Amino acid sequence: MPTGSSATPDDSQAGPAQPPGPRHADATDRNRGSTAGAGVPLPPGDARVVWDEWDVPHISAGTDPGLCYAFGWAQMRAHGDLILRLYGEARGRAAEYWGEDHLAADRFIHTMDVPRRAEAWVEAQSASARACLNSFVDGMNAYCGSHRAHLGEDVAGVLPVRPADVLAHVQRVIHLAFVAGNSEPAARTWSEVPGSNGWAIAPGRSASGKALLLINPHLPWQGLFTWFEVQLQGPALDVYGAALVGIPFVGLGFTDCLGWTHTVNTLKGADLFELDLVEGGYAWDQDVRPFDVETVCLHVRQADGSRRTEELRIERSVHGPVVARRQQQALALRVVGLDQPHLLEQYWAMARATCLADFEAATARLQMPFFNTVYADRDGHIMYLFGGRVPVRPGGTWSDWLGPIAGRTSATLWTTTHAYADLPRVVDPPAGWVQNANDPPWFSTFPPTLERTAFPAYMAPDGLDFRPQRSLRLLLAQAQFSFADVVAAKHDTRAELADHVLDELVTAARQSPTLLAREAGEVLACWDRHLDPESRGAVLFAAWMRAAATPRGMGRTPASAYRLPWHAADPLGTPVGLADGNAAVGALLEAAGQVLAVHGRLDAAWGDEYRYRGAAVDIAAHGGADPLGIFRAVGWGGADAQGRRAAVSGDSFVAVVEFSSPVRAQALLAYGNASQADLRGDDRQLELMARKSLRPVWRSQTEVDAHAVQGTVFQAGVPPR
After folding, report:
1. What is the CATH number of domain 193-265+343-402+411-490?
2. E strands, 572-717, in order
3. CB 676 within 8 A of CB 77
4. Which residue in 31, 136, 479, 603 is deepest, having the highest Cβ count within 10 Å?
C-alpha cells in the first residue's frame, strides 16, 4: 500500500497570530465594501437564462465570469431569502441580525475561525477562480438590487453579499456540517448521518450497451442541504445537475461525456482531543503549553431592536480550537481540509473533464475533504472512490478514533493526510457495477475487489448496514439493467431489516401468553415487507423498530440485538435473528399500544401515517429511513395531532443517466427548485414522487426552447432587469 501523503500544516487549525484587544465580529465587513462598489453590479459578459416548466434554469454564456454572474442571479431568484440567511449565519453574525436564538451558532462559527479563514481563502484563489467568484456574487447582488421587493425584510440587512460569504458558507456546509458532523462522538453511528445511494453500471451489464449512472443523495429538504437544479453551458462546458444552494459549482451532475454522484462516506476527518487543563494552559509532552487566546465581540439583537455586545473568548490548542470544557478538561476539535481552499476550481475541472483520466486528475486534487464518488462515462468506464482527506494516524482501528482522543502528547496528533493513491478505489470491476449506500468501501462491488488488509485499519470501519445490503441485492438480482430497470430499482421499498428478523419476531409473538402480542404477530405475518401506501403491518413494524432501539428494548448493537451478528463471511445473510425474543416481544407490545392509540387498529396502512406534504397536497407516501433498510430512503418529521408524519429528508435530487448519444436522463427534485415565497407552491414533483416517477431532463437548445416559460438576457456592461 502506498504511503504517500499530502501535508496539512501543524498549525492549520490554530489560525493566524492574533492582535491584542478584542476583534469585532463585523470588523472585516465594515472594512470591505461590495465587490462592485455602489449601484447594481453589471454583467461581465453576455449570458442567457431560460427557465423551463420545472423551474430549472438553463444558463449559457461565452465566458466563465458571465456564466457565474447569471448563476448567482438565478440562485438568488429561486432562493434569495434562504441564501441571505445562510450567508448571515456563515458570517457568524446571525444573532446580530435575528436575535439570541442564534448566539450559540455564532460562537461556534467564530471558534472555528470561519469568517477570517474565508477572507484568506478569497485571497488564495487563482485569478480566474476569483473572477468567477466575484461574478457569482455580483449576480446575486444585482438580482437583490433590482428585485428588492421579492426579498424578505428580515434578511435585507445581510446585503451586500461578498465573496468571503460564499467561501464561509462552503466551509460551514462541507467542513463543519459534513466532515465534523459525521465525526461527532454522539450516540449515533456512521450509518445514521445524512446519506445517499449511488450506482454506476458498465456497458456489459446494461441492456443498451451504454453505461448507466444513478444519482441519489439523501439530505434534509431545507436549509444548508437544499439542492438547486441547473444546466450550465459555457466555454468547453455543458453540465447538468444540482448544486447545494449558495455554492457556485455543480456538486452532482453529468455531461455528454461523463457523470458523477457523491455519497456520505465513513471517512473520519475530524477528531475531538481531550486536553488536561493545568496552570498556564494544558499538559503537552510532559510540559505545559499555553493556549493561543483571542477575544471576539459578538453583537446580539434584542427584542426591542437594540443590540448588546458579548465578548467571546476563544482558546486554540495545537490540536485546534477548544469547543467545550468540563471540569479540568477541555475538548479541542481538529478538522481536515481547512487549508484546502480550491474546491471551486476542482469542481469546475471535474465538470469540464471528457474522460476518466481527466476526471481523476481533477478529483485527485483532494480539495473536497469528504464523500465517496461514483462515476460512469460514455467510454464505458465506471469507478468508485473513497474520496476525501483521511488523516495519517499513528495507528489503531477506525473505532479506536471514535470517541474523544487523549491529547496530552504528540503521539496522537496527526499532521498529514493520505494522498489520492492511498484511498480505496475500484475501476471497471469484473461484476460490471459499483455502488455505495453509505457503507464502507469494501463492498463497493461484489464479489469484492478491495483487500481490507491492504489499507490502514483506521481508514474505514467494517460492516454492512441494511440499506447497502438492499442495494447489493438489487444489483445482484439481474444480469442486465435497462434504463427503466434502474428507475424501478431506485423506487424499491422492501424493508431489508424484515428479511433478517421478521420470521423470528412473528414466531416469538405467536408464543406469547399476551393476546395483543399474538394479534400483532399475525399482522406482521401478513405484511408484504414493503413500505408502500397500502402496506398493512409496515406502521407496526416501524414502531417496533423504534421501541426496540430504546434502552427498554433490544438495544442497537449487533451483539445485543441479533442472534448472529454481521460477519464478512456472510455479508448479505447477517445479522440475522433475535438475540432475545422476550425483549423483542416486549418492544412489539409497546409498539402495538402506540399504533392502536393513534390509528385504532394494528394493521394501519403505511400511507395512513406517512405523508408527502406540499403547499397544496397531502399524499400517502412510501419509503422509509434507516435502519429499516429501504433503498427508497425517506426521513420523517414528528407526528402531528392526528399522528401523521410528513417527509422532511431523504430522496431529494434524483437522476438516472444513460450515456447514449444523445445522453438520456430523467430526474426529480422532490421539493421543487425554488423556496422564495413568490415562487414556492409547485407540488407537481412531489406528486411524481408519490407515483414513483421521474420527469424528463431537457438539455438541447431545441428542447429547452420548447419548454421555456421565462428568460433573462444579460449584456456585458448593461444593467440587468
Report:
1. 3.60.20.10
2. 610-613, 618-620, 634-636, 645-651, 653-658, 664-669, 695-696, 708-714
3. yes
4. 136
On whether the CB atoms of residues 557 and 463 are closer than 8 A, the answer is: no
Architecture of domain 496-649: Orthogonal Bundle (1.10)
The CATH architecture of the domain made up of 33-182 is: Orthogonal Bundle (1.10)
Q: Is the dihedral of CA 136, 140, 141, 142 positive or negative?
A: positive
Digit-coded pLDDT (tens) for 548-600: 985 444 434 444 689 999 999 999 999 999 999 999 999 999 999 999 999 99
pLDDT tens for residues 213-250? 999 999 999 999 999 999 999 999 999 999 999 999 99
Encode pLDDT of 345-377 as tens digits: 999 999 999 999 999 999 999 999 999 999 999
Residue type, 121: W
Q: What is the DSSP annotation of 332-398?
A: EEEETTTT---HHHHHHHHHH--SHHHHHHHHTT--S-S-EEEEEETTS-EEEEE-S--B--SS--T
Backbone angles phi, psi at 170, to 5 degrees: -60, -45
Contact 366, 174 (CB under 8 A): no
Minimal CA–CA distance to 24: which of 233, 312, 396, 357? Answer: 312
Is the pTM above the cut of 0.85? yes
Domain range list for the chain:
33-182, 193-265+343-402+411-490, 496-649
The candidate with the shortest Cα–Cα distance to 116, out of 11, 24, 223, is 24
CA gap 87, 93 in Å, rounded: 9
- How high is the mean pLDDT of the chain? 92
Amino acid identity of residue 44, one-letter, is: P
